[in-house]
Design brief:
about 230 residues, alpha/beta, Carbamate kinase, seven-stranded mixed beta sheet, two-stranded antiparallel sheet, 9 helices, about 45% helix, globular
């Protein structure tokens, strides 16, 4: 398959709790399209973000449900967000959202498209894992993970004033000290534990950076030093 740049786009980058940022979306669209017109190709894996958590929290406030049902609810929100992004890129995007990153027949149908859009797949992990699977499918060695944080920290900076930013970390330490080994629906972590396990197995390099800072995103895409965390 052709070489693609794999980007996991947190749902809160597309639609934060405060609502759509139209100017940001226009700039993000322009950044990707400018590169596409120069010959680059992208796989954008879209998360559920705040939308996912709002639905899950509301539902659990009304009724007690098994985790599997909450997982599926979250997956549906990724599909909705992904469809929004797919339409945002119009003729440059694949004609449908990828919902199964392991379906090689489906992937062959879009392998010549300039921008492939994907959402969630199955209960048990987040779109981070889908993005790692797609990196494997497209033989990518690196993956950009765009979230709403500048760096990975050794603990939650919103709760601890002494939280220290991490600029570079290995997978074993990242999994042991930062994200653990189990994922729960709606869990908000820099990179989900299941994805981390697979990324370590593949020897994948993952860059975690703030997707709202498009100058830094562009630096990362260009292979230049950027403000963020590298996990490898």
């Amino acid at each position: 398959m052709s070489k693609y740049k794999i980007i996991s786009v947190g749902g809160s980058i597309i639609i934060p709790k405060t609502g759509f940022d139209i100017q940001f979306l226009k700039k993000f669209r322009q950044l990707i399209l400018t590169r596409v017109k120069k010959g680059e190709k992208f796989v954008l894996v879209i998360g559920g973000g705040a939308t996912c958590r709002v639905y899950q929290e509301a539902l659990t406030s009304v009724v007690k449900l098994p985790n599997t049902d909450l997982h599926w609810l979250g997956i549906y929100t990724t599909w909705y967000n992904a469809e929004f992004v797919r339409l945002m890129f119009g003729k440059y995007a694949s004609p449908f959202v990828i919902k199964d990153p392991t379906d090689e027949k489906i992937l062959k149908q879009v392998q010549n498209d300039k921008i492939i859009i994907a959402g969630g797949w199955q209960p048990g992990f987040s779109t981070d894992t889908d993005s790692v699977i797609l990196a494997r499918q497209f033989s990518a060695k690196e993956l950009l993970n765009l979230s709403n944080i500048d760096y990975v920290y050794d603990k939650d900076p919103r709760k601890f004033e002494d939280a220290k930013k991490i600029e570079k970390i290995g997978w074993p330490e990242f999994r042991k000290k930062i994200v653990g080994y189990k994922w729960l629906p709606g869990k908000n972590s820099p990179f989900d534990p299941i994805a981390s396990d697979l990324a370590q197995e593949l020897g994948l390099k993952v860059a975690v950076l703030n997707g709202n800072n498009l100058k830094e995103v562009e630096k990362a895409l260009n292979g230049k030093p950027f403000k963020g965390t590298i996990i490898e």
